[in-house]
Specification:
Elements: E1 10-14, H1 29-42, E2 47-51, H2 56-65, E3 73-76, E4 81-84, E5 89-90, H3 92-98, H4 104-111, E6 118-119, E7 130-133, H5 136-152, E8 157-162, E9 166-171, H6 176-189, E10 196-201, E11 216-219, H7 225-234, E12 241-243, H8 248-258, H9 283-299, H10 306-314, E13 316-323, E14 329-331, H11 332-341, E15 351-362, E16 367-378, E17 381-393, E18 399-408
Parallel strand pairs: 1-2, 1-10, 2-3, 10-11, 11-12, 13-18
Antiparallel strand pairs: 3-4, 4-5, 6-7, 7-9, 8-9, 13-14, 15-16, 16-17, 17-18
The chain binds alpha-D-glucopyranose and magnesium ion.
Magnesium ion binds near residues 15, 17, 18, 202 and 203.
């Protein structure tokens, strides 16, 4: 959270499964749309928070399967575990507050007496979360009986039913909503209370997110019956919560537009970058747009037109250098020539490129350094390069690419790097 020194302009707190991630979209198009919007318009002054029911183990698995960005804050196990930054530093203060009137042994002992409850995988049983599967038809009755048993044994617990099959038992003070309230309080004491907060969800464990004061909310179009029912009974007249028309991450973009929380045009919705001139010189934008162009060029989705590569070449310094992750050095202009030859070589193939953690700093007047993680999905293989770009700009002229350097990130196991272009 040290990344920002002033209050974030927007904080998005989003569930993952069936909200940020559409498991019915094998191309991940809506997620990629969101990613480029976030890196283009929000990363530099906003916070991205993922709030998932998954344990750290299953969360990390999902990160390997889907092109998820790196969030600033990760809330896992239905609001019982909060971590910060890329290295996921745990919030021990939060854990301490959850011990109140909580006894894992008693919770398990009582819950195991119900034959309707089937214990979930071992990875999903956490210090402050015990999880089961239960049939939809039995859920209400079991929940009622369980609460009575816990009350008798002096425990103050919360039972949440999600996705028409999952039943989680948590301390009363836990849950996605309480975790968000805790986070907002913490940010406020640090002088970083977000200007706007948008909560996004699709199922029962997300309902609490929509009752936190001053928070905008979006239930994506594909929201589960139990969430829609909760909304109809509890939040129908709250104009700050909408049921989007669009699925998953596209529903989040829709809500940004609906509540006027900032830009809502994803670079992926712009078909011709030559026509898309931004008023302000912004080197971060330049990089996001370039890698998107690069994806489309190799997929053969833009016209094979000289004007594109000529304009790219013109924006490279004549003696600009590209350091390939293998260590080999080439001139930037030669690299563009190489790119010209690869037009359409990924047509009809699984090939996607996305930027993560784009960070632009202006070192000296007229000079910028942009750092980012550049990801490339190539068939079943995924690679990430830490990329640093140096730009210069003269008064009244556009940005000039001076130097590009790439190194393999620790997540990429690279055996052969000859297919990597830029
Ligand atoms: C995730 C978790 C699971 C939990 C469910 C609903 O799927 O893996 O343990 O029950 O979310 O919160
Ligand atoms: Mg979900």
């Amino acid at each position: 959270m040290e990344r920002l020194t002033s209050p974030p302009r927007l904080m998005i707190v989003s569930d993952l499964d069936h909200t940020m991630v559409d498991h019915h979209d094998s191309e991940n198009l809506s997620l990629l749309r969101f990613n480029s919007l976030w890196e283009h318009a929000y990363r530099h002054d906003s916070f991205l928070v993922f709030s998932t029911g998954r344990s750290p183990t299953l969360y990390k698995e999902l990160r390997k399967e889907k092109p998820l960005l790196t969030p600033d804050i990760t809330i896992m196990s239905v609001g019982t575990e909060i971590t910060y930054g890329d290295s996921m530093v745990p919030d021990h203060g939060w854990v301490d507050t959850l011990n109140n009137k909580w006894d894992l042994g008693i919770v398990k002992e009582e819950a195991c007496k119900f034959p309707e409850l089937k214990l979930q995988a071992e990875t999903e049983q956490r210090p402050h979360k015990v999880s089961f599967y239960v049939d939809k038809s039995k859920a209400q009755e079991v929940t009622k009986e369980l609460s009575q048993r816990f009350e008798k044994r002096g425990l103050d617990v919360k039972i949440i039913y999600s996705g028409g099959m999952d039943l989680d038992i948590l301390p009363q003070g836990a849950g996605k909503g309480q975790a968000l309230a805790y986070l907002l309080k913490k940010l406020k004491t640090e002088g970083k209370l977000p200007v706007n907060t948008l909560a996004c969800g699709d199922s029962g464990n997300d309902a609490e997110l929509f009752s936190i004061p001053d928070v905008y909310g979006v239930m994506v179009s594909n929201a589960q019956e139990e969430l829609l029912k909760w909304h109809a009974e509890n939040a129908k007249d709250n104009p700050k919560v909408i049921h989007a028309k669009e699925r998953c991450a596209s529903g989040i973009i829709e809500a940004i537009g609906h509540f006027k929380l900032g830009p809502n045009l994803s670079p992926r919705d712009v078909s011709d970058f030559l026509e898309c001139k931004t008023e302000n010189v912004n080197p971060g934008h330049e990089v996001v747009k370039f890698f998107l162009f690069y994806e489309r060029w190799r997929r053969g989705e833009v016209e094979n037109c000289e004007a594109y590569t000529a304009s790219l070449k013109a924006s490279c310094h004549p003696s600009g250098v590209f350091v390939h992750p293998s260590g080999a050095e080439k001139s930037l202009r030669d690299t563009i020539d190489e790119l010209r030859k690869c037009y359409g070589d990924k047509q009809g193939k699984k090939f996607r490129v996305w930027a993560d953690q784009v960070l632009a700093t202006d070192t000296t007047p007229g000079t910028w350094i942009v750092k980012l993680d550049k990801w490339e999905q190539n068939g079943e293989e995924r690679r990430c390069c830490t990329t640093t770009v140096k730009f210069t700009s003269k008064e009244g002229e556009g940005l000039v690419w001076e130097h590009v350097q790439q190194t393999w990130s620790k997540e990429s196991e690279v055996k052969d790097d000859s297919s990597w272009i830029i």
